[in-house]
Write a structure and sequence with these properties.
This protein is α/β, with parallel strands linked by helices. 29% of the residues lie in helices and 26% in strands. The protein has 5 helices and 6 strands; from the N terminus they run βαββαβαβαβα. The protein has a 6-stranded mixed beta sheet with strand order 2-3-1-4-5-6, with helices on both faces. The chain is globular, with a radius of gyration of 16 Å. The structure holds guanosine-5'-triphosphate and magnesium ion. Magnesium ion (MG) binds next to α1.
Length: 170
C-alpha cells in the first residue's frame, strides 16, 4: 500500500503595507476574529496577530501577521516589519487614487529591499463602496503580483485573499 503523506505545517511571516485608513487593520481583524470595527483606531507602530488555516491538501499555514502603521511618520519603521517576510499585502482603498499611488511606492520599495522570493498581493479594499473597478489588475500583472478586491466590512474575498496567497508560496 502507498505510504502516508505527512501533512505539511508551514509558518510564514506576512506583512501588510499601505496608506493610513485603507483598512489594513480591519482586514486582519476580519480574518483573525471574524469581526469588523467601523471605529477602528489608527495603528501606532505596528501590531502582531497570528492565524492558522488548513488548505485542501491538508497543509496548514500559520500566518504570523505584522499589521504596520500607514501614517507617514511611521514609514521609516517599515523595513523592521517587511524584512524576512514571505508574503506582503499591499493594500489601497479603491475609492482613493492617492492610496493607489502609495501602494505603487510600497511595491517598488519591496522590489528593491524585500526578500527576493517574496510573494506579493495587491489588495483593493472597501469594495463595498464601489462597483468593481479593478484598476489594479494591469499594474499587478506587470509586477507579478496576485490581485484581489476585498471588503473587510462585508467579508467579501477576505478568506480568499489568504488562501490564494498561501497557494502561491514557493
Ligand atoms: P492605519 O492603521 O492608520 O495604517 O490605517 P488602516 O489601514 O489600518 O485602516 P483601518 O483598518 O483602521 O480602517 C480605517 C477606516 O476604514 C475605519 O473607519 C474602517 O472602519 C474603514 N474600513 C476598513 N475596511 C473597510 C471596508 O472594507 N469597507 C468600508 N466601507 N470601510 C472600511
Ligand atoms: Mg491599522
Amino acid at each position: 500500500s502507498g505510504g502516508v503523506v505527512d501533512a505539511k505545517n508551514l509558518r510564514v511571516k506576512l506583512v501588510l503595507l499601505g496608506d493610513s485608513g485603507v483598512g489594513k487593520s480591519c482586514i486582519v481583524l476580519r480574518f483573525v476574529r471574524g469581526q469588523f470595527d467601523p471605529t477602528s483606531k489608527v495603528t501606532i507602530g505596528a501590531s502582531f496577530l497570528s492565524q492558522t488555516i488548513a488548505l485542501q491538501d491538508s497543509t496548514t499555514v500559520k500566518f504570523e501577521i505584522w499589521d504596520t502603521a500607514g501614517q507617514e511618520r511611521y514609514a521609516a519603521l517599515a523595513p523592521l516589519y517587511y524584512r524576512g517576510a514571505a508574503i506582503a499585502f499591499i493594500v489601497y482603498d479603491i475609492t482613493s487614487p492617492e492610496t493607489f499611488n502609495k501602494a505603487q511606492y510600497w511595491v517598488k520599495e519591496l522590489q528593491k529591499h524585500g526578500s527576493p522570493d517574496i510573494v506579493m498581493a495587491l489588495v483593493g479594499n472597501k469594495a463595498d463602496l464601489h462597483e468593481k473597478r479593478e484598476d489594479g489588475i494591469e499594474y499587478a500583472e506587470k509586477n507579478g503580483m496576485f490581485f484581489i478586491e476585498t471588503s473587510a466590512k462585508t467579508a467579501d474575498n477576505i478568506n480568499q485573499l489568504f488562501e490564494e496567497i498561501a497557494k502561491r508560496l514557493p
